[in-house]
Design brief:
This protein is mostly beta strands and 802 residues long. It has 3 helices and 47 strands. The strands form 5 sheets. The protein has a 31-stranded mixed sheet that branches.
Length: 802
């Protein structure tokens, strides 16, 4: 049969919107289309956040429709005839009010901890007891296919370069600032994490490993409502946070806001034993970090008629970080390991003030018949002011005499302004969905690195070690995408994104002899993606996806000047870094909508990685720098499954594994040739106990692997337990949890590169007890509009400075 005739015969569709008895849109309801002839299942869809569903690519015939949602009686649309090419719109379908009296029965439901959708894996966090007292970065350690290393770098399916979003908006942070934000985002505020390993053309091309979108809790209450929550955590040090949120909605507008306050301390201990140039260096780092600050967010949406919405969104935050560190290095000869020749005491103190503010103006048109238009204007301002004091004292082996002393102080302010404008348009066309869009972004980063020498109690400016670095990056992007159902079993999607980058970095040295030429980058990149899904049976689905992505270097790592960590350790950027390009292929299989398998392959050229090497001018010193690996290959596998062991015992299992191969040759014997197989097992068990108690036992085991280019680490594991009880008609929720009971989340490993061999180990304040209380009040039906602002990708390479 002619293919065109087959497609025409399968070009019918049905659509509609589900509402509850209070005329509130019902999201994530199941909508099943059955054949009226033999009652066989034809297609399953779920409603989106507006309660809309659209079942496409249906053959002419006689069908009936069944919609189901927890807490409501099933809604059935009696048998109907569907002609070829007919686009049937049922309009609003309304669930009847439940006939169950709440005094006589209680309807309860729990989301499965991990869901797999065609384009993403969803890690549901809300309601899990062991998230109590945790934060966003700790939750990422538990997410399927995600690994967080000892420097809090995040990888997915063995691939580095993942982007972090919050509510569809790119986090404009990296390095220390990103870690600080995630550590101060309480798990109690998080609803779920969407892990998108192969994003389509609509998403920014930045990010080799894809996107992790942290979705904050959203209530659905009508009228005025709010919630308050607080958590106290005790490890070696204490941490606490308190927050609240509120909404008000009527027919004309929806106003919403939230605020969180946090305060606490933790520690980070590390040891390194290094060998280079015949020397042996035994280093101990003990750091205590304290922080306090706030985050605030507020906005309002105005509903201009049935199809038009204008929204204003603003957010801001301020954090004050203080860090006191002990850094001691025992220096001796490699052939006499018990003899210490000298000791360097480089203990330091730093104070960092970090502020951020973002503003978004949004217009959205949605006629609920397949046409949407979204326009965003965004501005963001980020200011980091970091002051650091560092005395360097070389002592005799008995620590009685100071042989030499050099004291330095550092002032490293960074100001970053980000401007973005983007348009996204989507329309049902030719039996499928067409999307086109464009985006412009401009990032202006002003960085100063000012060094002062302590002489006779005075701070004297050091013009040899000081510099400023200004970076201006403009990216012009456009994309087109299309998806449709090809037949009863086949679905297809494809897209193409183009990005033109024009960037200039200017280093201004304070001594003319140290002046470097400007960094000038100008290139056009193309990013195709294509995907197919095949319905093996009503309960089995195969998915195959390909995508090409880019990872541009963070702004700070392009600065070629030295950042001194101590007299024997420093970090320097690389202005000649190339962006890395990755090609990803993924094959997924889903059984019974519960058991999920994924096999992935990625090939990255010019992989950006951090390397540690000996200094050419001082036999005792080492430095950290950034360079491009020639090639990185990663093969990954992931399996996840929720299992009901007993009616009172539910479990979730996740297994991830990857094989990594890093290759590079920088000449002079500086070769990277590293292969590693790593795996991670995570499981969580939830038990319903007497007296309305609920308990959780969860944990992970992570096998050995590789961080960066050459650091090979050993295995680690953790076990967590928790208990939960609700009071006052479920409005008050009390949760108690103990994390990392056996204190095994620490790390250790070895790095060998360019004649420098280093074995390191470390741990942090991971073993702790937390108590959390949350209280909800107000009406139960308001729903804030889920909105994605335009300030996304280009801001995400801001690092925490020095």
């Amino acid at each position: 049969m002619n293919l065109a005739l087959v497609l025409a015969a399968q070009n019918a569709s049905v659509r509609g919107q589900l509402q509850d008895a209070e005329k509130i849109a019902v999201e994530f309801a199941n909508v099943v289309l059955y054949s009226a002839t033999d009652s066989s299942m034809v297609k399953v869809e779920t409603t989106d956040e507006a309660g809309l569903f659209h079942i496409k690519g249906i053959e002419a015939g006689k069908y009936y429709l069944v919609a189901s949602h927890i807490g409501s009686a099933d809604l059935e649309k009696e048998a109907f005839d569907l002609a070829a090419d007919q686009q049937l719109d049922f309009g609003v379908l309304q669930f009847a009010a439940s006939g169950i009296e709440l005094e006589e029965a209680i309807v309860t439901a729990s989301r499965v901890i991990v869901e797999t959708k065609p384009d993403r894996t969803i890690f549901n966090v809300e309601g899990t007891i062991n998230s109590t007292g945790s934060d966003a970065i700790e939750l990422l350690r538990k997410a399927p296919g995600v690994l967080v290393d000892n420097n809090n770098n995040i990888s997915v399916l063995g691939r580095a370069g993942v982007l972090l979003y919050v509510d569809g908006k790119r986090l404009p942070l990296a390095g220390d600032d990103l870690v600080n934000f995630l550590q101060n985002l309480p798990a109690e505020q998080i609803d779920r994490m969407d892990i998108i390993t192969n994003p389509g053309a609509r998403y920014e091309a930045e990010g080799n490993a894809g996107i992790i979108d942290i979705r904050l809790k959203r209530d659905k209450r009508f009228g005025a409502n709010g919630s308050v929550n607080g958590t106290y955590t005790q490890g070696r040090y204490s941490r606490s946070n308190i927050g609240g949120s509120g909404n008000f909605r009527n027919k004309a507008m929806n106003a919403f806001g939230s605020i969180s306050l946090y305060d606490g301390q933790n520690y980070n201990d590390m040891t390194f034993l290094s060998f280079q140039n015949g020397l042996r260096m035994d280093e101990v780092n003990e750091n205590v970090n304290g922080w306090q600050g706030f985050n605030i967010r507020g906005g309002v949406d105005f509903f201009l008629g049935e199809f038009h919405t204008i929204g204003i969104l603003a957010s801001g935050g301020n954090t004050d970080n203080e860090s006191r560190g002990v850094n001691v290095i025992n220096i001796g000869r490699q052939d006499a390991p018990t003899v210490v020749d000298s000791i360097l005491d480089a203990s330091a103190f730093s104070d960092a003030q970090r502020t951020q503010q973002t503003y978004n103006l949004n217009y959205r048109f949605d006629n609920q018949k397949g046409t949407t238009l979204n326009i965003d204007f965004d501005y963001g301002r980020y200011e980091n002011d970091i002051q650091r004091e560092q005395p360097n004292r070389f002592l005799d082996p008995e620590t009685r005499e100071i042989r030499t002393e050099v004291s330095n102080s550092f002032d490293t302010p960074t100001d970053i302004d980000i401007y973005t404008f983007k348009i996204d348009f989507e329309k049902d066309l030719w039996g499928g969905r067409l999307g086109v869009g464009t985006k412009f972004s401009d990032v202006i980063s002003d960085n100063s690195f000012l060094v002062f020498d302590g002489i006779n109690g005075n701070a004297v400016f050091n013009d040899s070690l000081s510099n400023t670095f200004d970076y201006d990056e403009k990216v012009y992007a456009g994309y087109i995408s299309y998806s449709r159902q090809l037949s009863e079993k086949w679905n297809f999607s494809a897209g193409l994104r183009a990005e033109y980058t024009d960037a200039t970095g200017v280093l201004q040295a304070f001594k003319e002899s140290l002046q470097e030429p400007p960094v000038e980058l100008e290139y056009l990149s193309w990013f195709p993606n294509i995907g197919f899904t095949y319905q093996l049976s009503p309960m089995q689905t195969l998915a195959l996806n390909y995508g090409r992505r880019i990872n541009r270097p963070d702004y700070n790592v392009l600065n070629p000047f030295n950042s001194q960590l101590s007299l024997l350790s420093y970090e320097k950027g690389n202005p000649f870094l190339s962006p890395e390009i990755v090609n990803n292929v993924e094959l997924g299989y889903t059984l019974n909508y519960r058991y999920n398998f994924k096999l992935s392959y990625s090939l990255t050229t010019d992989q950006i990685t951090r390397l540690i090497a000996p200094d050419e001018n001082d036999d005792r010193a080492g430095f950290i720098t950034w360079d491009n690996l020639a090639e990185q290959t990663v093969i990954g596998f992931n399996f996840s499954a929720p299992v009901e062991m007993k009616p009172w015992w539910n479990s979730y299992f996740n297994f991830s594994a990857s094989y990594l191969d890093n290759q590079a040759d920088y000449g002079d014997g500086r070769v990277v040739d590293v292969q590693a197989f790593t795996y991670s097992i995570y499981q969580q068990h939830t038990f319903d106990l007497p007296w309305a108690l609920k308990a959780e036992v969860g944990g992970y085991y992570s096998g050995p692997g590789v961080w960066g280019g050459v650091f090979e680490y050993e295995s680690s594991w953790s076990l967590d337990v928790g208990l939960q009880r609700k009071f006052m008609d479920n409005k008050l929720n009390a949760r108690l949890s103990i994390r990392d009971i056996f204190f095994e989340t620490g790390w250790d490993g070895v790095s060998e590169f360019a004649g420098l061999v280093t074995r390191g180990s470390g741990n942090w304040d991971s073993r702790s007890v937390s108590l959390s209380l949350s209280y909800n009040f107000g009406n139960q039906n308001v729903k804030s509009r889920k909105r994605k602002a335009g300030l996304e990708d280009e801001a995400g390479r801001i690092s925490g400075g020095n």
